[in-house]
Inverse folding.
């Protein structure tokens, strides 16, 4: 999925051709602010299956332990220009509706900070989420979830780093030359709303095969999206579809298959792939050590290998986007590096029959 931050503001030239290109980019820089809504698409992650609140709020809190804390770091397009740098933090938990019910309520909070481009466009967000999970059968193997999230978003840029055509004289850039431009306010604030529905079912011996399918939507309020506060320019809604198949082949080997589809305005993203897990068990305890490797493909953009290690409650994963799009000559096939760290835990020691029932995933 393309990101508006791909667009760069021009800098000083080195030769006539570069100067011409940068002048052209500088001349349209302000129009990019005004037409951001038509080019803006949400940030994305290679390890998308870990970003439940951004992927589908109805997947919030769907895991076996009491809570999950996570952090992401992503660096993209550093081989071309100023990189996209993203930091994300997330926390999720759940609790049963009541002692006699297998239904449970999940809640979470996600926040990310993104910076990109030569003018340091920054995005800061906070997304709390609430999810109700309804158990559909006595075997506790089917759940239907309804999730909601409401977010605060702030966009900003650094006016001191902008350059304009009027500042180029005789082929040379001079920041002291007046730009003759009327810059907008350097910040804009948006309020967002999203919702989703998700279905989980487990089958097979010991419910070792799990299917997860869901749909979600974001930016239902379609907030005004213009640094100039122009009417009629709004942020596009994003629709998302998710599918997961998880299965255990033996006591030590299991796998997950993931698919995700996102649509926002004229942008589309299809991502497919899988992860194979090797598990070392501890006698009378949960899985103690897991080594995982996988491969994903973002259609028309990148091939993404993933490596992950779990030790007791802590997991660390790295991935890298090998760019295979038309940009590969400029990027030297270098896309984005991503690092995630997660910690799962319980508030108290619980016997299995006292734990919240969740699909195996």
């Amino acid at each position: 999925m393309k990101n508006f931050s791909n667009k760069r503001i021009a800098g000083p030239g080195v030769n006539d051709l570069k100067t011409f290109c940068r002048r052209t980019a500088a001349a349209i820089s302000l129009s990019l602010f005004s037409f951001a809504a038509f080019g803006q698409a949400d940030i994305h992650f290679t390890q998308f299956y870990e970003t439940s609140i951004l992927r589908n709020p109805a997947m919030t809190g769907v895991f076996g332990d009491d809570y999950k804390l996570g952090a992401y770091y992503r660096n993209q397009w550093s081989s071309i220009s100023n990189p996209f740098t993203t930091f994300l933090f997330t926390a999720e938990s759940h609790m049963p509706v009541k002692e006699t019910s297998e239904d449970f309520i999940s809640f979470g909070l996600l926040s990310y900070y993104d910076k990109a481009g030569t003018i340091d466009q920054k995005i800061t967000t906070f997304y709390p989420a609430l999810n109700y999970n309804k158990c559909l059968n006595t075997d506790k193997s089917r759940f239907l979830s309804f999730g909601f999230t409401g977010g605060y978003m702030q966009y900003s840029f650094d006016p001191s780093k902008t350059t304009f055509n009027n500042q180029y004289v005789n082929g040379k850039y001079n920041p002291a030359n007046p730009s003759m431009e009327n810059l907008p306010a350097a910040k804009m604030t948006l309020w967002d709303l999203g919702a989703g529905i998700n279905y989980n079912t487990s089958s097979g011996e010991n419910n070792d095969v799990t299917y997860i399918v869901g749909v979600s939507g974001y930016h239902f309020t379609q907030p005004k999206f213009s640094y100039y506060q122009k009417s009629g320019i709004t942020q596009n809604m994003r629709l998302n579809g998710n599918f997961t198949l998880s299965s255990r082949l033996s006591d030590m080997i299991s796998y997950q298959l993931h698919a995700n589809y996102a649509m926002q305005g004229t942008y589309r993203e299809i991502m497919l792939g899988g992860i194979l897990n090797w598990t070392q068990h501890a006698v009378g305890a949960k899985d103690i050590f897991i080594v995982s490797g996988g491969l994903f493909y973002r259609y028309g953009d990148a091939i993404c290998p993933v490596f992950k290690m779990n030790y007791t409650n802590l997991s660390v994963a790295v991935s890298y986007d090998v760019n295979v799009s038309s940009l590969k000559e400029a990027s030297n096939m270098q896309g984005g590096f991503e690092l995630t760290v997660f910690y799962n835990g319980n508030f108290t020691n619980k016997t299995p029959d006292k734990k919240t029932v969740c699909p195996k995933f």
In short: The longest helix spans residues 16-27.
